Here is the input.
Amino acid sequence: MKKFTLMMMACLAALIGQAQVTPPAGNTPLLYTFSGHDTYIDQDKTAEVFVVFNGMDVYFQGLSVGYMPSGWVKGTLDADGTVTVPATYMGQFDFWGDTYDLDFDGAVFVYDQTANTFTAADGYTTSVEGLVLDEYINVVLTGATAVPATPATPEITEFTQDDYGYYVRMNIPATDVDGNDLFTSFLSYQLYYQKADRAVYEYEVTTDDYLFVPENMKQIPYNFTDSYDIDVAGRQFYLYGDDIEEWTAIGVKSIYTVDGETNESPISWYTLVTTSINDVKAANGETRYYDLQGRQVAADTPGILIQVTRLSDGTVRTAKIIH
Here is the structure.
């Protein structure tokens, strides 16, 4: 019944049009830390969310931790400190070439002004096409303050060739030079490379090479992933370019921007020894399966899956599978 109702609501919304929630202009979002228990994977999770107060209206950004952290929902603050957030259309997100409408299924928070916290013991869910995605209980949002800081120097830990090309693995600390934790919403990183001429070149992620990125980027947000070529925090990052075999070194730096002040780490360099990419072409394609949070899963996992096949010539083919 729930699935049927959600599908009917989605069809009706498509006919009348759905508007995403956005806070009124001129309000500065306030930083809060999110903690909650993910009942789907049975793990505690932390994240960063933003809150806007506008009279008795309270706007939350980031409650969809795993799928649409940029989405907003709006609740109403009562005199007793209860914030009621109704079921809300959060917007569309793209995944492997398909577009999904994400719904927030409603929640009730208790606001403690003295402690500057919002608590939702019963938690909340989000859903798409009748399938529950975000699934949290024991949710607490706690007010926090970000201050400018110089990020710790990152490092490239591995440069590797596989059947499809080159990739790097990185360690990008979410701390400053003194070891204090940073808020990853304000942290990004950038890649560089050198050739025999010793000049420093900026590496750019382009929509021509990376099929699932929304725009060309030189600075990559710490939390960004395209769920294929680029992992969160640069844990694995595929490289594209006709001249990679000419590179002699690859570098990375961290960038931290708070209140308009930007601080950067030095570039950390990794010396390269490369061989021809043509020597390691695969004879056959490789197929993997991912859920809508970008996690690689087994082919028979229940729910909506994306089947991704990368052929030996680099071509990527995708298909949506519903179990």
Notes: Helices lie at 2-16. Residues 1-17, 274-284 have pLDDT under 50 and may be disordered. DSSP finds one helix and 24 strands in the chain. The first helix runs from residue 2 to 16.
